[in-house]
Amino acid sequence: MIQDTETIDEFLAQRSVDVEQAIREAAAAEIMPRFRRLGASEIDQKSGPHDLVTDADRNAERYLTKELAALLPGSVVVGEEAVDADPTTYDAIQGDAPVWIVDPVDGTRQFVHGDDGFCTLVALVQRGTLLASWTYAPARGQLATAVRGGGAFLDGERLFAGPPAPGRDLEIATSHPDYTTDAQKRALLGLRVDGVAPRPCGSAGLEYLAVARGELDATAFSWEAAWDHAAGLLLVEEAGGAHLTLTGEPFRVTGGNTLPFTAARDAATARRVRGLLAGEA
């Protein structure tokens, strides 16, 4: 089993292109042939009308599970659809082995409706530390990558989020009300103040990419599922951004966070948004 960080660093230096290829191939084989061609029998509901799953999700995750585990011997895969089938598989994030965290189609609702705002998310994590991430939007032809300490990139171009422009409202993507508790709804109401422009989020992965690009100022999310956040949080960090939970601590992919939490394009914006969520500003 590979457990040494230096060994994983070597793997990332030598095999990142193979990870990218596996992600592109999964999308080409299982996702894009179904884009705008889904039949009713290929779409199911999970927990509610906004929580959809398709054959593209399931088949792409199976493809990635096989390929990623083979690329890094001793690693395990935690995928959204596998966890839906067996919640105990999520526990692997707490272990010592390197973990691939996979969301095969992030933004399934958009995918189902023929909108190009969906992506495939893959992150490599060990002992709770985000090591690398891939955000692939196949319908847009975009691939964003990040390696801890090595920067964030979109199609090979370095990303720097930078601070928001002074004098304009902060644009913040927020959780859908269906996925918030009453206490979280009250916290999110803290964003409805002058100088802040909250809006409902789309694909979490693409919202994180927008933060890393400096096109969106922050997110405010109220759920912990690692497959939605792991890839994007590292992308934002490596682009110069920051993330904070309601208690002022960075978000932990291993769980136990106080929610909602924010990811923002710079540390000052993260602190401001956290303060609004906590009712301190």
From TrEMBL:
BP terms from Gene Ontology: inositol metabolic process; phosphatidylinositol phosphate biosynthetic process; signal transduction
Cofactor(s) required for function per UniProt: Mg(2+)
Record PROSITE patterns: IMP_1, IMP_2
A molecular function GO annotation: inositol monophosphate 1-phosphatase activity
Keywords (A to Z) from UniProt: Hydrolase, Magnesium, Metal-binding
EC numbers: 3.1.3.25
Reaction catalysis annotation: a myo-inositol phosphate + H2O = myo-inositol + phosphate
Sites where the protein binds Mg(2+): 80, 103, 106, 228
Signal peptide extent: none
Pfam families in the record: Inositol_P
Full protein name: inositol-phosphate phosphatase
